[in-house]
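Backbone shapes recur. Consider a single case.
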Amino acid sequence: MAARKAKDIPTGGSGGGGVNWTKLAVGLLVALPAMVVLLPTTMLVFVLSLPTVVAFLVDRTRERYLVATVGLLNLCGVLPALVALWDRGQSIDNAFRLLTDMVYWIAAFGAAGVGWAIFTSLPPLVSSYYTLVTQHRVNHLRKRQKQLIEAWGEEVSGRHLDHERDGHESLLDAVPE
């Protein structure tokens, strides 16, 4: 077998699951000067996005659905304050004035709260829906099985073969009504 080339060796990049230090460094080189130039915007966004930071710290799943849900809705709640800052002028004084206005806090944290509510309430609702749909389908299949047995006889059910072979009941019999 031929020796592996240097380009074939995984380095922990995008597919390896490790930190891609090059992308992180480039991101910081772009973001830090922008954050300094837009310091009032950075301050406002950071303070009003604290629910997203908490969601990031709490959510340990690989997919980060909580962060996405809370973060996007939190961003929607931060936008009115951001527009007001840009409308009034990009200054630290205006940023502090907006941070003392409770309407913007309620908008940002309320939107994040809606994100938390969606994240916590939607999975049980979807699960209940699929349980009902599955139960309806099982009932429909049971009715259809009875019709086929009436038309063709007990042999088409396969129950006699299942009991003879291993003593187990059919799949539809195993599902509770």
